[in-house]
Amino acid sequence: MWKLKPPLDTPLSLKYKHILEQRIPIDPATLINLKRLSAEEEFPNLSRSCTNMAKVLTLQMYKRLRVKATKSGFTLDDIIQPGVDNPDNLSGRAAGCVAGDEESYDVFREFFDPLIELCHPGYQQIKMHRSDMNPENFKGGADFDEQYVLSCRICTGRNVEDYSFPPHCSRGERRALEKLAIQALIELSSEFNGTYYSLNTLGEEEQKRLTSAGILHEDPLSPLMVSSGMARDWPDARGVWHNNDKNFIVWVNKEDHLRIISMQQGGNMTQVFQRYCFGLKKLEEIYRKKRHPFIFKYYLGYVLTCPSELGTGLRASVHLKLDHISKHQKFSEILQRLRLERHFIGDTHTSAEKNIYSICNSDTIGFTEVELLQMVVDGIKLLITMDKCIEQGAVVDDLIPAQK
Ligand SMILES: Nc1ncnc2c1ncn2[C@@H]1O[C@H](COP(=O)(O)OP(=O)(O)OP(=O)(O)O)[C@@H](O)[C@H]1O
User: Which of this chain's residues are annotated to bind ATP (predicted)?
Assistant: First the structure.
């Protein structure tokens, strides 16, 4: 397994095991004792890494931070491992690192603050995170022309107080979180009738059915999940719940304790957002009543495993067909000005041939949920207008938005 924790039978690691299990504050001197080699000798080779982690981490910072750990024992080396193993940065936003628990963002703030700023320029000016999950505050319609838009999806993550995050949680923590999620989802079922499927016991037929409904993916274990430690013990204590209409989905113990998804075919983003807000607020209330609230910090918003998803965690994406504007030489620049980004679709080859794109918001922090959705909807509508104009032989340069 990737996590190079010392073997448990040596005196040195017994000391480490004690630290992990007792959850006592870690004495930096203890960690220094565990580091037999110098920072220069241990510093990772980042020459191929295009991630934001590699842009932020210097040897001096590594020297200062490598002897620190959170109370549950998450270290800087654990944080940066995904970016060391996966040097590519396909989205431009790739953090190349993960948090192992809520405290990671405090103990390693010297590293995380500039990193979040790179992922989300302007983050350091944010005084207080704002949330707005009232669909009535959305201006204008959020319904798209279905000749262009094939499907809409909104996704976010949530982590529960007092438990380590998936890269770091123990088997027992993960199982306790699954138990809690199953109880909460049963309560949610009074609003949304649904079923939980444990990956441990999932049959082949069910697996096929969930995959064809876009709920399970062919290969759930990305290299990022493996190198961050999120894939440890897979599929133990992992599962997915969906409502009877298969348009509200909750993943348990994947990248975050919970990943919440509202999605449907066609262009009705209004319904997708209404369901997202209603279901997520309900789930949050259930967890709060069980005295296991979601982790929220005034300056980070909802605290998630991946620092590029802090704030709302919201990713609103649309699969749409753009035959013309996608060939414009400034297509990438237009997306950037609209604060949107392109994600790759599972079957990249076929979707590229058919000019089908997956476009979503690039920000998650600094804006409310309603504001982010507004950006996505207004941006997608503009792209569709531009596509239509080009098809009719018009020049669209004066429609290109100014840099926001
Ligand atoms: N609008 C959409 N309609 C249908 N499927 C979608 C849509 N947007 C994304 N998906 C699918 O959801 C999966 C995850 O998409 P993507 O990687 O872009 O999102 P993410 O936010 O990075 O990850 P996740 O939402 O799983 O946490 C992919 O299989 C993708 O094809």
Answer: 151-155, 259, 315-319, 343-348
Residue 31 lies in a domain: no
Which ligand 1 atom is at minimum distance from the Cα of 315? Answer: 21
Task: Give the span between the Cα atoms of 217 and 31, in whole angstroms.
Answer: 39
Residue 363 forms part of a structural domain: yes
Domain presence at residue 164: yes
Pocket test residue of 319, 320, 361 for ligand 1, highest count of atoms within 8 A of CB: 319
Cis peptide before 220 (omega within 30 of 0): no
What's the CA-to-centroid distance between 154 and ligand 1, angstroms?
A: 9
Query: String of b and e for 142-178 (b: at least 16 CB within 10 Å)?
Result: bbbeeebbbbbbbbbbbbbeebbbbbbbeeebbebbb
Instruction: Find the CATH number of the domain harbouring 323.
Output: 3.30.590.10
pTM of the model: 0.90
Binding-site residues from annotation for ATP = 151-155, 259, 315-319, 343-348
Rounded Cα distance, 242 and 215, in Å = 8
pLDDT one-digit tens code per residue, 187-241: 998 778 999 999 999 999 999 999 999 898 867 678 889 999 999 999 999 999 9
Whole-angstrom Cα distance, residue 198 to residue 175? Answer: 11
Atom of ligand 1 nearest to the CA of 343: 18
Q: How far apart are CA 218 and CA 200, in angstroms?
A: 16
Separation of CA 246 and ligand 1 centre (Å) = 15
